[in-house]
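Quick entry between incubations.
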Amino acid sequence: MSFEYAPAPESRAITNIKPKYGHFIGGKFVTGSKHFPTINPATEEILSQIALAGKSEVDAAVKAARKAYNSTWSKTSGKERGKYLFRIARILQERAREFAVLETLDNGKPIRESRDTDIPLAAAHFFYHAGWADKLEYAGLGSFPKPLGVAGQIIPWNFPLLMLAWKVAPALATGNTVVLKPAESTSLTALLFAEVCQQAELPAGVVNIVTGDGSTGALIVNHPGIDKIAFTGSTEVGKIIARSVAPTKKSVTLELGGKGANIVFEDAAIDETVEGIIDGIFFNQGHVCCAGSRLLLQENVAEEVLHKLKKRMEKIRVGDPLDKNTDVGAINSKEQLAKIVELAKVGDDEGGQRWSPACDLPKKGYWFAPTIFTGVTSAHRIAREEIFGPVLSVLTFRTPQEAIEKANNTPFGLSAGVWGEKGSRTLWAAQHLRAGVIWTNSFNKFDPTSPFGGYKESGWGREGGRHGLAAYLKGVAGE
Amino acid sequence: MSNRIDVKKTYKLFINGSFPRSESGRTYEVKTSKGAFLANPCLASRKDLREAVVAARSAHNGWSKATAYNRGQILYRIAEMLQARTSEFIEEIMITTGATKVKAEKEVLQAVDTLVWFAGWSDKISSLTGSNNPVAGPFYNFTIPESMGVVAAVAPENPSLLGLIESIAPIITSGNTVIILASTKAPLSAMSFAEVLATSDLPAGVVNILTGKKDEIAPWMASHMDIDAMDISGLSSKLTAEIKVAGAENLKRVHSFKRASAHRITAFTESKTIWHTIGV
Amino acid sequence: MNFYGLVDGSEASLKTYLNKLSGVDQVGANARAAMLATRSVKTTSKRWAIDTAISMVDLTTLEGADTVGKVQALCTKAVRPDPTDSSVPSVGAICVYNDMVGVARKHLDLIGGKHVPVAAVSTAFPSGRASIAVKVLDTQDAIDAGASEIDMVIDRGAFLEGRLIDVFNEIVTIRQVCGEKAHLKVIFETGELVTYDNVRKASFLAMAAGADFIKTSTGKVAPAATAPVVLVMLEAVRDFYEMTQKRIGVKPAGGIRNTKDAIKQLVLVKETAGEEWLNSKLFRIGASALLNDLLMQRIKMDNGYYASPTYVSVD
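Done. Structure below.
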């Protein structure tokens, strides 16, 4: 007998998914009018019916947020606002397991990641920003920092609760109220978060959650009662939003796409580099805006790295996201799977050499095996377009200068990785890379104290850290 | 007085450290405040803009990687050169705008002081807007501001020299390069300022100055995909939305300011966060 | 000796060979080991892992207070770890000080434990601070007394001074003493080498010099067999196999006290070196208290309730 891990599924008994959900407006759950299903992408099981917010619901949410801003929240001291955020952080920690299981069910990501990354980081974001609420005048963003008012926040499906935390925590800490829309395919943890707001006794209307699709998002973006739009999602939609708000006085922050370069120099610590490449592209099924989706290998170590990478990929465990030993879970939706399949096909057609380890994919649900394409050049579409899936394009370079030139050869500028044991060279590379987040000898690390955001077409503004507060305060740009 | 004929200055563009005429061959007439003919500056075209962007882009790497100390010294050198030519600028402003000597002098001296002020910012902005971030893990994590790249600017009509310098100085002190469209009605001091720049050790292409029409050039700036950001302080608010819509195509950072401030520096910087492992 | 064709025995060739090694990033190695520690091993796989771990234990007593009686008791336990359950496998070996080798071998043979080898800690264990002549005699003595496995220590002082060729030559010498009669395990005392770079370097040095096993620690210095150190050594044997087609064994020792720790070790083996290493020929765990915890967990799995230490023998 060999050492096969027996199935180790996390129990879903801890969750209590209702058959149907409404919106969370003015501190109460209100019934929706139209509904659409949300599914478990690993099984295609319908988990619940989610309400589709139209104009009246968005109006009601904005009105509730405005009322809360005027009557309560703007009159609540930073010290007291902070206490609410601390409460939220603690409740998230207390209910962490429930959130993790629910996130995995609705999103398809492995329980190991929702348990060890998404939920703890979400709680940490609230804890971190709680402490800012009464210290804003020390943030170097003006002597009398003032909130913007009502923030409309539209978040993606790749890290549902974590992206909610990235948006809601700083908005509340700085004194804004919120109308938040989770992504169409992953509303459940946001709706559970509404319960957390109730348990924390957050004043009614400070956080409002409306569910829906892109049409709901557009209603928020174009709503005249909103002072600020914060969006995380595709560059394509980000540009639409930028155009929509151009004639208005709304302030905007955008967290958009990327095509992160992961540069491996000849002196890299190979085994840890291979782990970092894996983290860079297969973490969260590659549904990561800052994924290291372009691997740039120095030619004299390319063969060795690729050999070890393939060996390591053979050990990746793809399957049931609830199984504690799963490394790569399900693709979030049918549409996303189709997009990945299509771009991978483009990779084939352009002459890239596709390779995947042998792995049995489940029959039901949306799955894509971890994949690398070798023989890719900067001119290939799979080296330029964001795939947002577990697909890595491998390119090579000869000199450090050439690595930087290739890495920067993209309209995106969100993230990059640099691997090498020579400190001066890794810092040199970090200095020359045109990207907002650079990991040297690591990848896909996140922390509430660490600003995150992109150069160029990867977005506007930063989230996290002292810098992230600026997105929710008046007049910080001095305009 | 003898009957000697004055040698008048030909006002051209300032691109990549040189003074070319507009490729279009176009000029327009600038008059004194009293309506007399003053000069025929270039009416810059979109192709002049294109050339200027190429120059600004190729200058960016060197300028942004120059030490902050070096950039500060060069900005200070520009101030020195401007101070030395004060009287010439006063005269140019007076004749173009009809300003009194006192007012014109005040503008020029304030322009000199503005350059000195921003010169001193070059090596301080990182300390004030960067940060060390205490992440929960074995990482040294820090955030530094960096220049955005190529910035296009539209200078206010008035004050023509001070407004130009209040736009240029904060943009370049952090390492950006700039293409700026001067005051349409009063472009002469801008082009004379180009001569100051040309004698100030400023690398070619860091500052490029065009003269011409704002409603013609600004939309081309906004749609140019190799421009990273815009300072539209000098643009009428009627055009703002159109510029922002066009700029959205490559997500340009578009800003407008009412006065000189340190925010004008940070508005054109990007924060870069670097994670480095700590281990033995 | 040809050292797998990797070195020619000269200091220059040893340096060239070791300088080609890639570095180890401590943060990355720790992160990988921590991630593998989250593997959940349940039901059938846990049962398999417990029995496999028992068969891999080098049941050890290395104390100044060791007596004939103590060693004999340990031998009894080694052959039949659970006297009430004959399906429990014997352990991998008995590991004792040199002067107890004869006692252990004789007693094992007497009680039906011929299949259980005796490992001796030789070469001036644990410090290694003796002349090579003494180390050779020490080793020869253990083999003569019936040891079929020699756990030698490297000269950490020489290693840290950079006299790698001296470390190499000592291993080569002891390897020659062992000849065909004894397997050679080379102990690095990773707690004294400190860095993972050193662990990797020591691993490749020892493997080229003829080690059959590389072993983390003496058990006398902390930290000992930490997960990342074992990870680095498993990566080394995996890479060495690719270079030479020869599989070298790994033995973590020290600090592995309960079933959870032992299973984490097996997970490291499975996901790093691979399934081929998951047997007592290529993986051993140096321990004493571990065995009883494995037995208690085994009882729990069979009976469905938690066991009491009073139901497993103290030695």
